[in-house]
Structure formats: C-alpha cells, structure tokens
Write a structure and sequence with these properties.
Number of strands: 0
Number of domains: 1
Strand content: under 5%
Helix content: over 70%
Oligomer: single chain
Structural class: mainly alpha
Number of helices: 9
Distance between the termini: 105 Å
Radius of gyration: 26 Å
Length: 291
C-alpha cells in the first residue's frame, strides 16, 4: 500500500476553498432546519423533491467514496493532515448529504397533523368513522420506505465491491459511474416537483429563502471544488452544477411569492385599519344624528 500512496503536493487555494465549502454547506442548511423546528411544520415541501434529493445525494456519496477509495486507503500511511486534504471531496459531499437528509427527517417528524387524514364525511350512521389517510401523507410514508431501502441496498453493494476489488478495477469504476449518472439524472429531476408544488401553492411554506440565497451561488463553487479534486470525473460534479441552476429557479419563484404575500398582508392590514376608522367615525357621529 505504501508504495502506491504518492503524496500529492497540497494546493492551498483548493484546500481553503474545500474547507470553506464544507463549513458553508453545513451553515447554509441551518436556516432550513431551524425554520421547520421553530414553526413545528414542514408544510409546503414536496415528498418527491425530498425523495429524489436524498437518493441523489446518497448516490453521490457512494460515487465519490469509490472514486477516492485510493486516497481513503492511503490514510493508513499518510499523516492526518495529508489524509484530510486528499479526502476533502468525500467530506464535502458527505456533509451535503447529511444536511439534506436532516431536512428529510424533519419533514417526516413535523409533517402537519391536519394533512395526515381526510376530514370525516357525515354518513348518517352511528358507526364510528375510520380515518382515511390523505394522498400526501401516504406518499410521505412511501417515500420514507423507499429512501431507507435505497440507502441500505446502495451502501451494501458499495461495501461489498470496496472490500472485494481494487479501487482501479472496472467493477468499482463502473458502479461508481452508474451511481454518478443516476445521481445526475435524479438531481436534474429533483427540483421539478418542488417548483411545481410551490408554484401551484403560491406560497413559500416551510421553504427557507435564506438557505437558497446561500446555496445557489455556493452550488457553482461546490461543483468547481469537486471538479478539481484528484481522481474524480464529470459524474461527480455535474450533479451540483445542475442542482445550482434549478435551485436558482426555485429561489426566484419563492422570492416572488414572498413579496406577493407581503403585499397581500399589507393590503389586508390597511383594510382592517380603514374598517376600524370607519367604525369609530360612525360611533362618534351617531349621537349627533339622534339629537
């Protein structure tokens, strides 16, 4: 192993960018986590957006893990600094997956209670009515099972290949490419369900605009940072480029609905103030009319 582990001279600019993106990725997701927890609601999220995003991110984690398996194995002979620098791509993508998976978990925990079951209909019978699950709640449960099943299967296959073959063998390279391409396809599709749902709801809901304001430009930097990592190919970074573009579209829609809601609230407030003023004016003039 030692003779295969050639130390790569550190590129301080790339290393600084990678570390900054790891920290930035972690911090950028916090507004979304906080908003869901504070509001005690995940209303507004599309379960299919979370399904595609979680599966895509986990595929990319396995992709970068297999493509940088040599660097990870060399950590046995490198010092801690060289290990961290040369495996920075794995840390970046793992951080992104972990934080997005956190949104998925919070979505399940804080799914709105009033959206879980359909309102009971009066049948005129004295028999107790059974609760009927809504389509959205049924979809959320199906998505949970699909995500956990995919994670278990993908992690198992990647582990078996990693302990059976050498990192440069075609079996590992092919599986990594399949994961990367699958991740890219899902990433391209990921934002369409959320864009459609947000557009139809005409409301931001539980989505965090500050998160998207940080992540959209950061996504382009993230893609570039993965692009310059040793041993990776286009299947690793194209996912983040496509995600950044589509997240920008969702961000524009959310900003538009945010200001629309502000205008509607301001108009409603003016109407209430006008109604209050008219009521006070009427009460002040009514004694004069009676006299």
């Amino acid at each position: 192993m030692a003779d295969q582990c050639v130390e790569i001279p550190p590129n301080h600019a790339q290393t600084a960018l990678g570390v900054a993106l790891c920290i930035g990725t972690f911090l950028s997701y916090l507004p979304q986590h906080i908003k869901i927890v504070v509001n005690q609601s995940s209303e507004g999220f599309s379960p299919f957006f979370l399904l595609l995003g979680t599966v895509s991110a986990f595929c990319n984690v396995n992709n970068i893990f297999l493509l940088q398996l040599n660097s990870l194995l060399c950590c046995q002979v490198w010092d801690l600094g060289d290990c961290l620098v040369n495996s920075l791509g794995v840390w970046q993508i793992s951080t992104q997956w972990f934080m997005f998976f956190g949104i998925f978990v919070l979505y399940q925990i804080y799914f709105p209670a009033h959206l879980k079951y359909a309102l009971p209909t009066s049948t005129g019978s004295s028999a107790p009515s059974h609760k009927t699950e809504t389509t959205e709640w049924a979809a959320a449960q199906a998505v949970r099972r699909a995500v956990l099943g995919h994670m278990a299967l993908t992690a198992f296959l990647s582990f078996v290949l990693a302990v059976t073959f050498e990192p440069q063998d075609w079996q590992i390279q092919t599986w990594a490419a399949v994961l990367g391409i699958f991740s890219m396809i899902l990433a391209c599709m990921q934002f369409f369900p959320q864009i459609y749902k947000t557009w139809c709801r005409k409301s931001v809901g539980a989505l965090s605009i500050p998160m998207m304001l940080m992540q959209t430009p950061g996504g382009f930097l993230f893609a570039y940072s993965i692009y310059v990592r040793p041993g990776v190919n286009w299947t690793s970074w194209i996912t983040y480029l496509m995600s950044a573009i589509l997240q920008g579209v969702l961000l524009i829609i959310c900003i538009a609905w945010h200001f629309r809601e502000r205008r509607e609230r301001a108009a409603a407030e003016r109407c209430r103030e006008a109604a209050t003023t008219n009521a006070l004016g009427a009460s002040e003039t009514s004694p004069l009319l009676e006299s």
